[in-house]
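Exercise 7.
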Amino acid sequence: MKLILKLSRDLMTILLILVSGWLIWTQVFGRLDKRLPLLIALLITYIVSSYIILPILVRTIMLITRKGRIPRFVTAREGSFVDPVNIILIGSEKQLKNAFKNIGWNESDKIRIKSGLKMIYTFLNNKTYLKAPMSSLFLFGRRQDIDFQQPIGKSPRKRHHVRFWGVDVHKIEDPLDIKFWTEKKKIKLNECLSWVGAGSEDLGLGFTRLTFKVSHRVNHRVDHERKYILDSLKEKKIIGKINYYKSGEFKIGKYVSDGRIAVAKLKN
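Solution. The predicted structure, written as tokens, is:
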């Protein structure tokens, strides 16, 4: 029975990929190529494919193939796994913001037309933008509640950054329980929360896996960023003792990690 289900999922996945390829090549590029210059037709095809068709394809395939394992990764809008969860800080929203302010990190601007254009300008011209917006990633059925960054050099091409999702502090007893990750959670920001974070380091321009959207290229050794964040907080004596949940090493896609989630309480 399991073999039949696996073969069915694989067959459906292959069929969806073939249909998407046919749609992109014949219905998008084929039609545009007859009406527009080649370069413009290719550019529009890329935009439609990477930002519309391929995200829908990935989201559908993820729904078909996803198994009941613990989703230790936050996801992109289309459902593909992106940054791994590697840090949990316990405290209020005010404590969290003060903590990162004290170590020289900035809260990111929201994604708007103005901030998006400023991001593109500063990225291309190597200009400073300390609060450059971050893309929306998802956990617990919603985008990040808050994110912070610290530039490496002048522009937002390279930066340390971390996204956080707040959850009820009493529901963090076992973060390796699948229910913890799959339940949609509502929070009250004025209460003490567990801030589940995914920290990583941007190294420059790159493309996302599967959909090929223009994005940042991320340091695949994500444990370095976890250590950098924790060392910065410890140096300023902002956090207490650090405990680790050991879920096991992994090498998935571009990421290599010992798989540990660091947990610490924020001090007043």
